[in-house]
Structure formats: C-alpha cells, structure tokens
Amino acid sequence: MDALIPFTTSGSLVDLVDKKVMVILRDGRKLIGVFRSYDQFANFLLESCIERIHHRFEYADKDIGILLIRGENVVALGEIDLIAEDMVPLREVGWAELEEKIAAENKRRERDHAIKDKVLASIGFVNEGREGDAY
C-alpha cells in the first residue's frame, strides 16, 4: 500500500537525474541545464546551464556553465521534451538586443500604468498606497 503513495519529498527528483530540465527561480530567471545531483533539501546541481530570456517570439541565451541552486529559490522545475523543443517557433537573437527590447516594453508598460492611475484618480479612485473609501 505504501508503494502507491507518490513521493512528495526531494526523493521525487530521482527521475530527473541526467535529464535536461528548465528551472524557474523566485526572481523570475529561467535556467536550462542537465540535472546532475540533488540533496535532501532539494538543492541541486545543473551542468551545461544557460539562462534564457524571452520576448514575444524571440529568445536569447547566456552561458553559465555549472550552477548550484538552493532548493528554496525554485518556483518550478520540469523536464524538457527534447523532440518538442526543436519544434518551438522561436528565433534566437543577441542577449543585448533582447534586453533592450524588454527594457523598452517595461518602460512602455510603466508609462501606461501611470496614465491609467491618473485617469482613475480623476474620477475618484484612489491610487495604491493612499487611504480612501475606494478599493
């Protein structure tokens, strides 16, 4: 009966050893590498690791090499399907070029939020961080 209960501890990571995985960290970074080892705290070692950033249908990679990741910083961890990975319609571009596009998009988004907050304030809604009756 106990054999039917799935692992909910770091023991469930044993199936990922020596497989290509993607890790999403608490700070939003996405890492791809070969899962080599782990411990009882779910700290693990990635080999041939890269950091990947995305913007629309473009991506860029930065080589990291070998990386030790603390388990408490991991939001998601999953195996990459090597066949499906080749069919993703993304175009690789340079890291600096993509960082510029992401920064421009973030600047535009901040500007749009400022305009929205100003319009909402003009009709009686309260901006975040201020006291008032409107929630």
From TrEMBL:
> Which GO biological process annotations does it have?
deadenylation-dependent decapping of nuclear-transcribed mRNA; mRNA processing
Q: Which residues form the Sm domain?
A: 8-83
The organism's superkingdom is given as: Eukaryota
GO cellular component labels: Lsm1-7-Pat1 complex; P-body; ribonucleoprotein complex
**UniProt entry keywords in alphabetical sequence:** Cytoplasm, mRNA processing, Ribonucleoprotein, RNA-binding
* Gene Ontology molecular function: any one: mRNA binding
> Where does this polypeptide localize?
Cytoplasm; Cytoplasm, P-body
Question: Main role?
Answer: Component of the cytoplasmic LSM1-LSM7 complex which is involved in mRNA degradation.
**Record's family?**
Belongs to the snRNP Sm proteins family.
The name on file for this protein is U6 snRNA-associated Sm-like protein LSm1
Which species?
Answer: Kwoniella heveanensis BCC8398
